[in-house]
Amino acid sequence: MGTDRGKVDTMRLPWMRSVEPLAPPTHEDLIRLVALGDEAAFEELYDAVAPRVYGLVRRVVRDPAQSQEVTQEVFVDVWAQATRFDADRGKAMSWILVIAHRRAVDRVRASQASADRDLRQGIKEYQESYDDVADTVETQMEAERVRKALETLTDPQREAISLAYYGGYTHQEVAELLKIPVGTVKTRIRDGMIRLRDKLGVA
């Protein structure tokens, strides 16, 4: 049979062959663009690494809402500090995770310090009959002593106090979480505070 002259041998026409797609930009490429103020590159970088950043932050901070806040802070830092990134000193992902870990640790320390202050204030409020030593309580009670004293409470007392002072819940919210009356919550916190006062040497 004769050759079909209507058919074209594409093997002889290199320009008609499929073109290999360009490789996607690396994290390092994206950070270089971010350093130049490229918002599209920043969005692409965010989409690429945000899950890992949030995962690391969540493991340190634990609280989901705070973890989301810290993750946003991390990317604000990435945008602001992109010009400082040096590819010769490490990978972009490592650089970003270092920022994330530092931010997460800072948040935990700040939250712990705030909770310790709230607990110390709460103890002072539960010892109205000891006004003469109230001023010395805050200086005597360091965070480590407070934590050790908490370990001496009953489980119900420690749970109620931890939720109220470290979890930031109101008495009503603690009652709902533990499924007990508000009066019971107040009693556990009051008794626990009195016991903490005695353990911490406030006479």
TrEMBL record:
<comment type="similarity">
    <text>Belongs to the sigma-70 factor family. ECF subfamily.</text>
</comment>
<dbReference type="InterPro" id="IPR013325">
    <property type="entry name" value="RNA_pol_sigma_r2"/>
</dbReference>
<dbReference type="GO" id="GO:0006950">
    <property type="term" value="P:response to stress"/>
</dbReference>
<keyword id="KW-0805">Transcription regulation</keyword>
<dbReference type="InterPro" id="IPR007627">
    <property type="entry name" value="RNA_pol_sigma70_r2"/>
</dbReference>
<dbReference type="InterPro" id="IPR013324">
    <property type="entry name" value="RNA_pol_sigma_r3/r4-like"/>
</dbReference>
<dbReference type="InterPro" id="IPR000838">
    <property type="entry name" value="RNA_pol_sigma70_ECF_CS"/>
</dbReference>
<protein>
    <recommendedName>
        <fullName>RNA polymerase sigma factor</fullName>
    </recommendedName>
</protein>
<feature type="domain" description="RNA polymerase sigma factor 70 region 4 type 2">
    <location>
        <begin position="144"/>
        <end position="195"/>
    </location>
</feature>
<dbReference type="Pfam" id="PF04542">
    <property type="entry name" value="Sigma70_r2"/>
</dbReference>
<dbReference type="GO" id="GO:0003677">
    <property type="term" value="F:DNA binding"/>
</dbReference>
<dbReference type="GO" id="GO:0006352">
    <property type="term" value="P:DNA-templated transcription initiation"/>
</dbReference>
<dbReference type="GO" id="GO:0016987">
    <property type="term" value="F:sigma factor activity"/>
</dbReference>
<dbReference type="InterPro" id="IPR039425">
    <property type="entry name" value="RNA_pol_sigma-70-like"/>
</dbReference>
<feature type="domain" description="RNA polymerase sigma-70 region 2">
    <location>
        <begin position="45"/>
        <end position="112"/>
    </location>
</feature>
<dbReference type="InterPro" id="IPR013249">
    <property type="entry name" value="RNA_pol_sigma70_r4_t2"/>
</dbReference>
<dbReference type="InterPro" id="IPR014284">
    <property type="entry name" value="RNA_pol_sigma-70_dom"/>
</dbReference>
<keyword id="KW-0731">Sigma factor</keyword>
<dbReference type="Pfam" id="PF08281">
    <property type="entry name" value="Sigma70_r4_2"/>
</dbReference>
<keyword id="KW-0804">Transcription</keyword>
<dbReference type="InterPro" id="IPR036388">
    <property type="entry name" value="WH-like_DNA-bd_sf"/>
</dbReference>
<keyword id="KW-0238">DNA-binding</keyword>
